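Researcher: Please translate sequence to C-alpha coordinates.
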Amino acid sequence: MTTLLWFKQDLRLHDNPLLEGLDLTQPCLPVYCLDPAQFVADEQGVRRCGAHRAQHLLAALRALDNGLRTLGSPGLLLLPQAAEQALPELCRELDVRLLRTHSEYAPDELARLRQIAGQLPDSCQLQQVQDNRLFALDDLPFGLDKLPQVFTRFRNQIERQLPELHEVRARQRMGPWPRDAMGMREAWPTLAQFGLQAPDAEPRSALPSGAGEAAGLDWLSQYLWRDQSVRHYKETRNGLLGRDFSSKLSPWLADGSLSVRHVWRELRRHEDTYGANDSTYWLGFELLWREFFRLALQQHGGAWFRLRGLSDHAPVANRDERFEQWRSGQTGNDFVDACLQELNRTGFISNRGRQIAASYLVHDLQQDWRLGAAWFEQQLIDFEVGSNWGNWAYIAGVGHDPRGGRAFNVREQAKRHDPHGAYVRTWLADR
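Model: Translation complete:
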Protein backbone atom coordinates (compact mmCIF):
# COMPACT_ATOMS: atom_id res chain seq x y z
CA MET A 1 0.00 0.00 0.00
CA THR A 2 1.38 3.41 -0.97
CA THR A 3 1.06 6.26 1.53
CA LEU A 4 1.35 9.91 0.52
CA LEU A 5 2.48 12.27 3.30
CA TRP A 6 1.40 15.82 2.43
CA PHE A 7 3.61 18.26 4.34
CA LYS A 8 2.43 21.85 4.80
CA GLN A 9 3.20 23.89 7.95
CA ASP A 10 4.85 20.88 9.63
CA LEU A 11 8.34 20.81 8.11
CA ARG A 12 9.99 18.62 10.73
CA LEU A 13 10.58 15.05 11.82
CA HIS A 14 10.43 15.56 15.61
CA ASP A 15 7.04 15.49 17.34
CA ASN A 16 5.15 15.27 14.05
CA PRO A 17 1.78 13.45 14.13
CA LEU A 18 2.06 13.02 10.36
CA LEU A 19 4.60 10.27 10.99
CA GLU A 20 2.89 8.62 13.95
CA GLY A 21 1.37 5.15 13.89
CA LEU A 22 2.31 4.27 10.31
CA ASP A 23 4.47 1.51 8.88
CA LEU A 24 6.69 3.88 6.94
CA THR A 25 8.89 1.07 5.65
CA GLN A 26 6.25 0.48 2.96
CA PRO A 27 6.27 2.71 -0.17
CA CYS A 28 5.87 6.21 1.15
CA LEU A 29 5.94 9.51 -0.74
CA PRO A 30 6.53 12.77 1.18
CA VAL A 31 5.15 15.69 -0.88
CA TYR A 32 5.06 19.47 -0.60
CA CYS A 33 3.04 21.61 -3.05
CA LEU A 34 4.41 25.09 -3.69
CA ASP A 35 1.50 26.93 -5.25
CA PRO A 36 2.71 29.59 -7.76
CA ALA A 37 -0.48 31.61 -7.13
CA GLN A 38 0.81 32.76 -3.73
CA PHE A 39 3.61 34.66 -5.48
CA VAL A 40 1.34 36.58 -7.88
CA ALA A 41 0.65 40.20 -6.94
CA ASP A 42 -2.98 41.29 -6.53
CA GLU A 43 -4.52 44.57 -7.67
CA GLN A 44 -2.88 46.28 -4.68
CA GLY A 45 0.53 45.00 -5.73
CA VAL A 46 0.67 42.63 -2.74
CA ARG A 47 1.57 38.94 -2.82
CA ARG A 48 0.53 36.25 -0.39
CA CYS A 49 4.22 35.37 0.04
CA GLY A 50 7.17 37.71 -0.55
CA ALA A 51 10.85 37.10 -1.16
CA HIS A 52 12.01 36.90 2.46
CA ARG A 53 9.47 34.27 3.48
CA ALA A 54 9.87 32.36 0.21
CA GLN A 55 13.64 32.22 0.69
CA HIS A 56 13.22 31.00 4.27
CA LEU A 57 10.61 28.44 3.17
CA LEU A 58 12.79 26.99 0.41
CA ALA A 59 15.65 26.60 2.90
CA ALA A 60 13.33 24.87 5.38
CA LEU A 61 12.09 22.53 2.65
CA ARG A 62 15.67 21.71 1.70
CA ALA A 63 16.37 20.90 5.35
CA LEU A 64 13.32 18.61 5.48
CA ASP A 65 14.47 16.91 2.28
CA ASN A 66 17.86 16.24 3.88
CA GLY A 67 16.23 14.98 7.09
CA LEU A 68 14.02 12.55 5.21
CA ARG A 69 17.08 11.17 3.46
CA THR A 70 18.70 10.37 6.82
CA LEU A 71 15.71 8.10 7.49
CA GLY A 72 16.24 6.19 4.25
CA SER A 73 13.71 8.03 2.10
CA PRO A 74 14.71 9.40 -1.33
CA GLY A 75 13.62 12.76 0.11
CA LEU A 76 10.83 15.24 -0.48
CA LEU A 77 8.89 15.51 -3.74
CA LEU A 78 8.51 19.26 -4.20
CA LEU A 79 5.82 20.14 -6.74
CA PRO A 80 5.43 23.74 -8.01
CA GLN A 81 1.66 23.30 -8.31
CA ALA A 82 -1.50 23.96 -6.34
CA ALA A 83 -2.30 21.01 -4.09
CA GLU A 84 -5.87 20.71 -5.39
CA GLN A 85 -4.49 20.27 -8.88
CA ALA A 86 -1.53 18.02 -8.14
CA LEU A 87 -2.58 15.65 -5.37
CA PRO A 88 -5.75 13.96 -6.72
CA GLU A 89 -3.96 13.18 -9.98
CA LEU A 90 -0.89 11.95 -8.11
CA CYS A 91 -3.05 9.63 -5.99
CA ARG A 92 -4.64 8.16 -9.10
CA GLU A 93 -1.35 7.69 -10.96
CA LEU A 94 0.42 6.02 -8.04
CA ASP A 95 -2.55 4.08 -6.65
CA VAL A 96 -2.20 5.84 -3.30
CA ARG A 97 -4.42 4.29 -0.65
CA LEU A 98 -3.77 6.81 2.15
CA LEU A 99 -3.28 10.57 1.78
CA ARG A 100 -2.25 11.88 5.19
CA THR A 101 -1.90 15.53 6.15
CA HIS A 102 -2.42 17.85 9.11
CA SER A 103 -5.75 19.47 9.89
CA GLU A 104 -6.49 23.11 9.03
CA TYR A 105 -8.19 25.99 10.79
CA ALA A 106 -8.39 28.83 8.22
CA PRO A 107 -11.24 29.02 5.67
CA ASP A 108 -9.20 28.92 2.43
CA GLU A 109 -7.21 25.92 3.61
CA LEU A 110 -10.33 24.13 4.86
CA ALA A 111 -11.98 24.66 1.48
CA ARG A 112 -8.90 23.25 -0.25
CA LEU A 113 -9.06 20.11 1.88
CA ARG A 114 -12.73 19.63 1.00
CA GLN A 115 -11.99 20.12 -2.69
CA ILE A 116 -9.20 17.56 -2.63
CA ALA A 117 -11.30 15.06 -0.68
CA GLY A 118 -14.02 15.31 -3.35
CA GLN A 119 -11.55 14.56 -6.15
CA LEU A 120 -9.75 11.56 -4.67
CA PRO A 121 -10.37 8.09 -6.10
CA ASP A 122 -12.67 5.89 -4.03
CA SER A 123 -9.75 3.67 -3.09
CA CYS A 124 -7.85 6.55 -1.40
CA GLN A 125 -8.57 7.71 2.15
CA LEU A 126 -7.85 11.28 3.26
CA GLN A 127 -6.69 11.26 6.89
CA GLN A 128 -6.07 14.39 8.97
CA VAL A 129 -3.86 14.56 12.05
CA GLN A 130 -3.33 17.38 14.55
CA ASP A 131 -1.67 20.47 13.14
CA ASN A 132 1.06 22.50 14.88
CA ARG A 133 -1.10 23.67 17.77
CA LEU A 134 -0.73 23.06 21.48
CA PHE A 135 -3.97 21.30 22.28
CA ALA A 136 -6.24 18.89 20.48
CA LEU A 137 -9.79 20.23 20.26
CA ASP A 138 -11.12 17.26 22.21
CA ASP A 139 -8.76 18.03 25.11
CA LEU A 140 -9.97 21.61 25.64
CA PRO A 141 -12.20 22.36 28.65
CA PHE A 142 -14.82 23.77 26.24
CA GLY A 143 -16.10 23.06 22.75
CA LEU A 144 -15.12 25.31 19.85
CA ASP A 145 -18.61 26.83 19.89
CA LYS A 146 -18.05 27.81 23.54
CA LEU A 147 -14.62 29.38 23.00
CA PRO A 148 -14.27 32.40 25.33
CA GLN A 149 -14.27 35.57 23.26
CA VAL A 150 -11.78 37.37 25.50
CA PHE A 151 -8.23 36.06 25.81
CA THR A 152 -8.03 36.45 29.60
CA ARG A 153 -11.03 34.16 30.12
CA PHE A 154 -9.56 31.67 27.64
CA ARG A 155 -6.21 31.69 29.45
CA ASN A 156 -7.80 31.30 32.88
CA GLN A 157 -9.80 28.26 31.81
CA ILE A 158 -6.81 26.63 30.12
CA GLU A 159 -4.52 27.23 33.10
CA ARG A 160 -7.07 25.78 35.53
CA GLN A 161 -7.38 22.61 33.46
CA LEU A 162 -4.21 22.34 31.42
CA PRO A 163 -4.53 19.53 28.86
CA GLU A 164 -1.76 16.94 28.67
CA LEU A 165 0.51 17.38 25.67
CA HIS A 166 1.06 14.07 23.92
CA GLU A 167 4.59 13.61 22.59
CA VAL A 168 5.01 11.92 19.23
CA ARG A 169 8.04 9.67 18.93
CA ALA A 170 8.09 8.59 15.31
CA ARG A 171 11.59 8.94 13.89
CA GLN A 172 11.59 5.55 12.20
CA ARG A 173 13.15 4.31 9.01
CA MET A 174 11.22 5.21 5.90
CA GLY A 175 10.63 3.14 2.81
CA PRO A 176 11.24 4.01 -0.84
CA TRP A 177 9.09 6.15 -3.03
CA PRO A 178 6.69 4.31 -5.31
CA ARG A 179 8.65 3.30 -8.39
CA ASP A 180 6.60 5.46 -10.77
CA ALA A 181 7.26 8.56 -8.66
CA MET A 182 11.01 8.60 -9.20
CA GLY A 183 10.67 10.29 -12.59
CA MET A 184 8.53 13.10 -11.14
CA ARG A 185 11.35 14.80 -9.30
CA GLU A 186 12.07 18.24 -10.72
CA ALA A 187 14.92 20.67 -10.24
CA TRP A 188 14.66 22.51 -6.92
CA PRO A 189 12.71 25.74 -7.56
CA THR A 190 14.32 29.15 -7.29
CA LEU A 191 12.96 32.52 -6.27
CA ALA A 192 13.40 33.75 -9.84
CA GLN A 193 11.09 30.98 -11.03
CA PHE A 194 8.31 32.68 -9.06
CA GLY A 195 9.19 36.20 -10.15
CA LEU A 196 11.00 37.07 -6.91
CA GLN A 197 14.44 38.58 -6.42
CA ALA A 198 16.68 37.10 -3.75
CA PRO A 199 16.91 39.57 -0.83
CA ASP A 200 20.27 41.07 -0.01
CA ALA A 201 21.94 39.84 3.16
CA GLU A 202 21.15 42.26 5.98
CA PRO A 203 23.73 42.42 8.80
CA ARG A 204 21.39 44.53 10.94
CA SER A 205 18.80 41.75 11.17
CA ALA A 206 17.81 40.67 14.68
CA LEU A 207 17.01 37.09 13.64
CA PRO A 208 19.27 34.13 14.36
CA SER A 209 20.56 32.56 11.17
CA GLY A 210 19.29 29.34 9.66
CA ALA A 211 16.06 27.72 8.54
CA GLY A 212 14.66 24.26 9.04
CA GLU A 213 14.36 21.81 11.89
CA ALA A 214 17.99 21.51 13.03
CA ALA A 215 18.45 25.30 13.15
CA GLY A 216 15.18 25.74 15.06
CA LEU A 217 16.03 23.08 17.64
CA ASP A 218 19.50 24.54 18.09
CA TRP A 219 18.15 28.05 18.67
CA LEU A 220 15.57 26.73 21.15
CA SER A 221 18.36 24.96 23.02
CA GLN A 222 20.46 28.12 23.06
CA TYR A 223 17.59 30.34 24.18
CA LEU A 224 16.37 28.06 26.97
CA TRP A 225 19.49 26.23 28.06
CA ARG A 226 22.85 27.57 26.91
CA ASP A 227 22.21 31.32 27.22
CA GLN A 228 19.03 31.03 29.31
CA SER A 229 17.82 34.28 27.76
CA VAL A 230 14.28 33.18 28.54
CA ARG A 231 14.87 34.16 32.16
CA HIS A 232 14.66 37.86 31.28
CA TYR A 233 12.09 37.56 28.49
CA LYS A 234 9.41 39.67 30.19
CA GLU A 235 11.81 42.55 30.84
CA THR A 236 13.30 42.55 27.32
CA ARG A 237 10.43 41.42 25.05
CA ASN A 238 9.61 45.00 24.00
CA GLY A 239 13.15 45.57 22.80
CA LEU A 240 13.89 46.69 19.26
CA LEU A 241 17.53 45.87 18.58
CA GLY A 242 19.64 42.78 19.09
CA ARG A 243 19.10 39.05 18.96
CA ASP A 244 18.09 38.16 22.52
CA PHE A 245 15.36 40.66 23.40
CA SER A 246 12.63 38.12 22.49
CA SER A 247 12.54 34.40 21.82
CA LYS A 248 12.77 34.65 17.96
CA LEU A 249 11.13 31.21 17.79
CA SER A 250 8.33 32.44 15.54
CA PRO A 251 9.90 31.74 12.10
CA TRP A 252 10.37 28.06 12.96
CA LEU A 253 6.95 27.79 14.58
CA ALA A 254 5.30 29.39 11.54
CA ASP A 255 6.50 26.80 9.03
CA GLY A 256 6.40 23.97 11.55
CA SER A 257 10.14 23.38 11.66
CA LEU A 258 9.59 23.54 15.43
CA SER A 259 6.75 21.80 17.23
CA VAL A 260 4.94 24.20 19.54
CA ARG A 261 4.23 21.28 21.87
CA HIS A 262 7.96 20.54 22.05
CA VAL A 263 8.65 24.20 22.87
CA TRP A 264 6.02 24.10 25.64
CA ARG A 265 7.45 20.91 27.15
CA GLU A 266 11.01 22.25 27.01
CA LEU A 267 9.87 25.45 28.70
CA ARG A 268 8.28 23.42 31.50
CA ARG A 269 11.45 21.32 31.77
CA HIS A 270 13.51 24.51 32.06
CA GLU A 271 11.23 25.67 34.90
CA ASP A 272 11.58 22.31 36.65
CA THR A 273 15.37 22.62 36.41
CA TYR A 274 15.98 26.31 37.17
CA GLY A 275 12.69 27.46 38.66
CA ALA A 276 9.81 29.36 37.14
CA ASN A 277 9.76 33.16 37.08
CA ASP A 278 7.65 35.88 35.49
CA SER A 279 9.60 35.60 32.24
CA THR A 280 9.21 31.87 31.78
CA TYR A 281 5.51 32.25 32.53
CA TRP A 282 5.24 35.08 30.02
CA LEU A 283 6.72 33.05 27.17
CA GLY A 284 4.05 30.41 27.83
CA PHE A 285 1.50 33.25 27.97
CA GLU A 286 2.48 34.29 24.43
CA LEU A 287 2.17 30.70 23.19
CA LEU A 288 -1.38 30.71 24.58
CA TRP A 289 -2.12 33.88 22.59
CA ARG A 290 -1.00 32.02 19.47
CA GLU A 291 -3.34 29.17 20.36
CA PHE A 292 -6.23 31.53 21.07
CA PHE A 293 -5.96 33.21 17.66
CA ARG A 294 -5.92 29.87 15.85
CA LEU A 295 -9.03 28.69 17.67
CA ALA A 296 -10.82 32.02 17.17
CA LEU A 297 -10.13 31.95 13.43
CA GLN A 298 -11.38 28.38 13.23
CA GLN A 299 -14.56 29.43 15.02
CA HIS A 300 -15.29 32.62 13.05
CA GLY A 301 -14.01 31.66 9.60
CA GLY A 302 -14.35 34.28 6.86
CA ALA A 303 -15.63 36.95 9.26
CA TRP A 304 -12.02 37.22 10.45
CA PHE A 305 -11.04 38.96 7.19
CA ARG A 306 -13.90 41.38 6.56
CA LEU A 307 -13.60 45.11 7.22
CA ARG A 308 -15.80 45.10 10.33
CA GLY A 309 -14.30 41.83 11.52
CA LEU A 310 -16.19 40.54 14.54
CA SER A 311 -17.67 43.93 15.43
CA ASP A 312 -21.00 45.59 14.64
CA HIS A 313 -19.44 48.64 13.01
CA ALA A 314 -16.98 49.14 10.19
CA PRO A 315 -13.82 51.23 10.59
CA VAL A 316 -12.45 53.40 7.78
CA ALA A 317 -11.85 51.71 4.44
CA ASN A 318 -9.48 54.25 2.87
CA ARG A 319 -6.68 53.33 0.52
CA ASP A 320 -4.65 56.22 -0.83
CA GLU A 321 -1.06 57.39 -1.16
CA ARG A 322 -0.62 57.23 2.62
CA PHE A 323 -0.69 53.44 2.46
CA GLU A 324 2.00 53.48 -0.22
CA GLN A 325 4.11 55.79 1.95
CA TRP A 326 3.57 53.56 4.97
CA ARG A 327 4.51 50.28 3.34
CA SER A 328 7.64 51.77 1.79
CA GLY A 329 8.71 53.39 5.07
CA GLN A 330 8.30 56.94 3.75
CA THR A 331 5.66 58.42 6.06
CA GLY A 332 7.88 61.12 7.54
CA ASN A 333 7.51 59.65 11.03
CA ASP A 334 11.00 58.38 11.75
CA PHE A 335 10.03 55.68 14.22
CA VAL A 336 7.33 54.17 11.99
CA ASP A 337 9.58 54.43 8.96
CA ALA A 338 12.34 52.60 10.81
CA CYS A 339 9.90 49.77 11.60
CA LEU A 340 8.89 49.41 7.96
CA GLN A 341 12.46 49.65 6.73
CA GLU A 342 13.45 46.79 9.03
CA LEU A 343 10.43 44.75 7.95
CA ASN A 344 11.07 45.27 4.25
CA ARG A 345 14.80 44.57 4.46
CA THR A 346 14.69 41.54 6.78
CA GLY A 347 11.20 40.05 6.87
CA PHE A 348 10.97 40.62 10.62
CA ILE A 349 10.27 43.30 13.23
CA SER A 350 9.68 43.08 16.96
CA ASN A 351 6.22 42.67 18.42
CA ARG A 352 6.38 46.22 19.74
CA GLY A 353 7.32 47.50 16.28
CA ARG A 354 4.41 45.60 14.73
CA GLN A 355 1.91 47.12 17.14
CA ILE A 356 3.15 50.66 16.63
CA ALA A 357 3.32 50.37 12.84
CA ALA A 358 -0.18 48.87 12.73
CA SER A 359 -1.66 51.51 15.01
CA TYR A 360 -0.11 54.31 12.95
CA LEU A 361 -1.58 52.99 9.69
CA VAL A 362 -5.06 52.46 11.14
CA HIS A 363 -5.49 55.33 13.60
CA ASP A 364 -3.13 58.06 12.37
CA LEU A 365 -3.27 57.50 8.61
CA GLN A 366 -6.88 56.24 8.66
CA GLN A 367 -6.26 53.39 6.22
CA ASP A 368 -8.07 50.08 5.83
CA TRP A 369 -6.53 47.76 8.43
CA ARG A 370 -6.68 44.83 5.99
CA LEU A 371 -4.11 46.53 3.74
CA GLY A 372 -1.58 46.45 6.55
CA ALA A 373 -2.42 42.87 7.44
CA ALA A 374 -1.90 41.84 3.82
CA TRP A 375 1.43 43.69 3.64
CA PHE A 376 2.64 41.94 6.78
CA GLU A 377 1.47 38.64 5.29
CA GLN A 378 3.67 39.25 2.28
CA GLN A 379 6.72 40.48 4.17
CA LEU A 380 6.93 38.50 7.41
CA ILE A 381 9.11 35.42 7.55
CA ASP A 382 7.09 34.28 10.58
CA PHE A 383 3.65 34.93 9.08
CA GLU A 384 0.83 32.85 10.54
CA VAL A 385 -2.67 33.65 9.41
CA GLY A 386 -4.29 33.49 12.86
CA SER A 387 -1.75 35.58 14.76
CA ASN A 388 -1.19 38.15 11.99
CA TRP A 389 -4.80 38.88 11.11
CA GLY A 390 -5.95 38.48 14.70
CA ASN A 391 -3.47 41.06 15.96
CA TRP A 392 -4.34 43.52 13.17
CA ALA A 393 -8.05 43.19 13.94
CA TYR A 394 -7.21 43.68 17.62
CA ILE A 395 -5.41 46.96 16.87
CA ALA A 396 -8.25 48.11 14.60
CA GLY A 397 -10.88 47.39 17.24
CA VAL A 398 -12.73 44.76 15.22
CA GLY A 399 -11.31 41.64 16.85
CA HIS A 400 -11.15 40.08 20.30
CA ASP A 401 -10.55 43.28 22.26
CA PRO A 402 -13.03 44.32 24.95
CA ARG A 403 -11.56 47.83 24.92
CA GLY A 404 -12.33 48.48 21.26
CA GLY A 405 -8.86 48.68 19.70
CA ARG A 406 -5.39 49.97 20.44
CA ALA A 407 -4.27 53.43 19.35
CA PHE A 408 -0.65 54.13 20.30
CA ASN A 409 0.93 57.55 20.72
CA VAL A 410 3.94 56.98 18.49
CA ARG A 411 5.94 59.85 19.95
CA GLU A 412 5.51 58.49 23.47
CA GLN A 413 6.29 54.96 22.32
CA ALA A 414 9.52 56.17 20.69
CA LYS A 415 10.53 57.97 23.89
CA ARG A 416 9.87 54.88 25.96
CA HIS A 417 11.35 52.19 23.72
CA ASP A 418 13.97 54.11 21.73
CA PRO A 419 14.91 56.95 24.08
CA HIS A 420 18.33 57.59 22.54
CA GLY A 421 17.24 57.05 18.94
CA ALA A 422 19.46 54.02 18.38
CA TYR A 423 16.75 52.05 16.57
CA VAL A 424 15.86 54.92 14.24
CA ARG A 425 19.52 55.61 13.46
CA THR A 426 20.10 51.92 12.72
CA TRP A 427 17.35 51.59 10.13
CA LEU A 428 17.34 55.09 8.67
CA ALA A 429 21.10 55.45 8.49
CA ASP A 430 21.26 55.13 4.70
CA ARG A 431 18.54 57.65 3.94
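Researcher: Any highlights?
Model: Strands lie at 2-6, 28-33, 77-79, 96-102, 125-129.
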